[in-house]
Design a protein that fits this description.
The complex is a heterodimer of chains A (276) and B (258). Chain A is an alpha/beta fold. Chain A is 38% helix and 22% strand. Chain A has two domains: 230 residues, Rossmann fold (3-Layer(aba) Sandwich); 44 residues, no CATH class. In chain A, helix 6 links the parallel strand 7 and strand 8. Chain B is globular and about 60 Å long. In chain B, strand 1 and strand 2 form a beta hairpin. The longest helix of chain B has 31 residues. In chain B, helix 1 packs parallel to helix 9 and helix 3 packs across helix 5. Chain B is mainly α. Chain B has a two-stranded antiparallel ribbon. The chains are: A alpha/beta (276), B mainly alpha (258). The interface between A and B is medium-sized, with 29 and 27 residues.
Amino acid sequence: MPIDVKELSYSYNPGTALEKRALQNISVSINRGEFVLIGGDTGSGKSTLIRHFNGLLRPICGHVTVGGMQAHEKHVKAKVGIVFQFPQDQLFGRTVYEDVAFGPSNFGIRGEELEERVAEALELVGIREELYNVPPFSLSGGEMRLVAIAGVLSMRPDHLVMDEPLAGLDPGNKHSLLRILKELHSQGISVIIVSHRISDLLPLADKVIWMEDGRISFEGRPQDFIDSGHSLPPAITSLMKDLRQRGIDVRDDIFTIEDAFNEICRVKREKMVHRQ
Amino acid sequence: MRSLFFTYIPGSSPLHILDPRTKIVAVMIASIVIFRSSSLTGIMCIGTVLLILFLISGVSYRVALASVRPMMVFLAIIFLMQLFMTGENAIFKLSGFKATWEGLHTGTLLITRFVYLLLFASLLTATTAPSMLTVGIERLLRPLPLRKTGISSFDLATMMSLSIHFVPLLHEKFEHLMDAQVSRGLDLKHDPFRTVHSLSVPMIRTALRSSEEVAFAMESRCYQGISRTSLFDPAIQKKDFLALSSFIALMWLILLLA
């Protein structure tokens, strides 16, 4: 079930002095199983774009379909799960369980299947079973965010959209969130991450979309994105580029510290062999 | 994604440049007149004044709509109560309840008054920067002997302006929250219980937390409620006297004639 956006334009407060063009002629398609990063500065239209994926906003021009269905049909909201910025603010249930069950029960899922889905979602984000029946507000901030994410996952979406998921997370929580994202991606769910700082996520991505002033200014592979110079490359990539400029023959299409380490070791080994 | 609900719309119209005190006093007078006038002619006259003021201010009609829209449900309830609960001369009957001409009259009058109040208030907030509003309130309250009751006019003014600040802020948070819950399949129209539950609980939490944050932020910048000076120093000018006296005269006339 791909998300298909065709020639989408959108303005806030159309027809008034406060009219603000947020999106202009956007066409993009996201297939099931893809890991997509949508980047851009604040106000570039990223958040407006994702609000069209499940029909929260309706296009003024163009159309958005999900697996052939119009995006504003109710069923689409279960297929495209959106985790908004600071999702812990949306919790309301008396218990963690009740809150996570909210999504699927809105789509008429009851009984055993509901239990199964809630347990599956909570297990995936790593919330222990003894926390199922505590009020969500008694958890820590990081755990509350995980519960909120589980609240979207329990709808079993084909596409998971997350708006600034790493904002305000400490390194430990960040690491576990990245692990969850990898796990979801490996299950064949497409993961769409919206952020103004995407360098941390580049190693995971299949595709990068960069937005400027409501238009797509780049769409392609992470490697090409770094070469295009739209945003600063990850620190480790800059380091490799630097080394290369100083005449050390390392590859510079590297995003992670482990890869960099291996690459430097390889070059070093080759040098040793060369000397002998 | 700015909401128009009681927000300041920057501009340079004659209403924008008036002293905040002039506008606050004018709104107070207008509210009194709105509740004193009981005839349809009076109400219509005030409506005309309101329309002219909106035209002068150059504020979009959408601002007016945005300030009334959230109150629609309450207004409808008030109207129906009046329609069915007062008077004798029935227009039609509905399973034991009867709608009356008197009810129609008082109901219409009552909701028109409410709408006028909302519109005057939105005109005030749309043409006055929040900081100016605070200064205006503070200066108006200064002569009152509030010190003896333990709060200063500065405290009151700060509280008022903070509440005014909070309205658009909470409105924006509410819209974000609604997006999140609708994305989780909440059906706003068909499931009122779930809607109220899933929106009110996080909203109360957010409101309490935001106000706490503001309190901390103010305290950490050494806020104190006594004798604060102000960045903007409003001065009453000739045009304020002119505007206010003609407004009072107009309202007096409406009250006398209609």
